[in-house]
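Fold it.
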Amino acid sequence: MQLTDQEKRMLDGAEGPGTAKAMDMVIKWAEVDEAEKLVDITNTHTSPGEPIEWLKEISEGARARTYSTVHPFPIDRDHWEKQGIKREYMEKMNPYWEECIGYYKKLGLIPNFTCCPYMVGNVPRYRIGSNFFGSEAVLLTNSYFGARNPRTGGPACLLSALTGKAPYTGLMVDENRYGEILFEPDPALKVDAFNHADLGLLGYYVGTVAQDRVCVLDGFQKSVDFEAFKYLTAPMATSGSVALCHIVGTTPEAQSVEQAFGPKK
């Protein structure tokens, strides 16, 4: 695999042992995906919950190289009793979570604990590499902003935060972003007049049919605004595992059906 001089420096330990370990894991990830090279990542969003020993290892001499935010913990730590969580569980998990937070702060991650990083300033630009945790964050980042975001797990997002790198594979590659299935709602449905609930139902149907394929949705007469876009696309990652849906006229790289499909038919 091709490595730049900077990537070799990170791997060789010139920029700290934690960075070297993170880069080694990114390279192994790339080898699994048979990627020919790594690409730059500028925005990341990571999920809490890694093993403490692992966090300790990759934190040694390391620092986030991206604008990086943190996903919420799975439990409301202030109102856990109302959620029916047992005290014994919280007494066990709270010290672990506090230790995790300490490492995130040390690494320079922003501990805002949100599942919507794009709502708090973590907004990747068109064609720029990002690595967000969260199925809807991945879907919206690819589909609305036109950023290049792989579908990965939380640890991979943290590795990208510490190295500023990800494998050139999957949706990072332009040729893999072309549409694979087309949805054209009946004009009689008047999708431009859909309320948020209607959009959610449409998105749920699209996800059910598309599953993990790159889909193209045509039929809107005007650009879909950001709020409506969220309601439309979030269910696609629930009923299916869609990571990119071209909304014709809204998605930057899908101003027409032809552009969305590229050389594919």
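The mean pLDDT is 96.
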